[in-house]
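Bench log, entry 3. Co-assembly request; chain sequences pasted below exactly as received.
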Amino acid sequence: MGLSEFISLEADKIMSEFESFARQQLPAAADMDVVALRDHARQVLEAIALDMRQPQSGFQQREKSLGKAPRVESEDSSPAEIHGALRAEAGFDVNQTAAEYRALRASVIRLWMESAPTLGRAEVIELTRFNEAMDEALAASILHFAAEAARMRNLFLGVLSHELRTPLSTIMASGESLLISARSGKVMPDAAERTLRGARRIQSLLDDLLDYVRSGLGEGMRVTAAPDDMGQICTRVVGELRANHPGRVIDVRTAGDTSCVCDGQRVAQSISNLLGNALRHGARDMPVTVKVDGSSRDVITVSVHNSGSPIPEDTRETLFEPLVRGAGAVHGGYNLGLGLYVVREIASAHGGSVDVQSDEKAGTVFNVQLPRDGSAAAVFAFSGLRMN
Amino acid sequence: MIVDDDRDLVDALCELIGLCTDWTAIGAYGPSDAIAQAGETAPDAILLDMEMEGVDGFDTARRLDMAAGQRHPTLIALTGNDRLRDVALHDGRFTASILKPADLTGLLKLLEKVSPAH
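Structure output for the full assembly:
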């Protein structure tokens, strides 16, 4: 059986072989649902099989080998182009995107060879054409991967600068006020407080940005787990935020045993991010509540609740993504998403998780669940040497 | 009237305008608050943040103008997004469009021009 015919007939088998390979090899693929992973690979493969059946002259072959093959003029992107852009969006890196093609190629050739084809001149030509088409698809995919990644980076920088501009405005206006009042000997503690809050907001945006950049470089979030007390961590964070937000009510409630093993600084950072969001987006005249639930043996849960209008349904899914398509288009506080991305990274670095519930009646609550014994965080426990 | 969903910025701008102009500045912390206040006080000028909690600033501008009734207030767009600043600049509704951070001298000059009454 010829290779293109084999691909068409055995598409299901090739796909399941490819899928198991991809799942083993590609960490980001593990998060991708089966249909999304399989669909695009299948379309890429179908396009390749189709291309192999088109007659090709020696001239066309040379052109293709030089990467000069004419691109079919069409409104629609090729499956390979869509593949590249989607992978950028799904948080794949360029190696993982290329590795999918390696997996696909290996799966096809291995299964074809297993079918014991007669290997004559025609088969060698077909194999060559298969490889050419594969390379062409790979190149198209990578090109679009790069373009999409650049687009997302630009969008991200735009949103970031926008997020920084509001607290900067507050600092500048309050600074002017302080200057004017100082000339007349007046004291304006409110303006001074606003200045500090604005500066802290910028600082926390930059801290989150740094974590995001580090995690994007493949270093992951580092946590150094040590025995601590979740109740005390939360009380400390709330104390700081109360000082920065006079006039706002922040309650802390604890239940059960709140002792745990975690990275106290990192956990404090994530609670602080959640509280900052709750204070910014929640109803002003209602308290923000932090609950620490230590009643379960293995898991400790921290919930941060605020009243007020719920998070729109369509932004909820992408809330924890650093920046995905759509999330940046909706401007309205939750857009940057870096703060929540960092919250999720800190939770996963501890082997825990974070989720959100939000509706008109009950308000919005973020729940962070961490394993109490910190054992899942132990992988990184010795990566940073701490002098205590 | 200063409208932004960032309270600190609203308070800071109100205070500053109160300190160095004859204007009486009032603050609104969100679109619905702003529309309610515009109906009650009919402000001469409104400095409007274009991106509040997912609400379209151009729509808010239209509703503010309606709420203020016959005394059409001077609308000034305020935004941290340079592209949106340009869009607002070319939108007939807005007299001016300012990119955050608003610089004080520019803002005061603008306010002088806005209302000869002040």
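Residues 113 and 119 of chain A are 9 Å apart (CA to CA). Chain A has three domains: 3-153, 155-216, 226-380.
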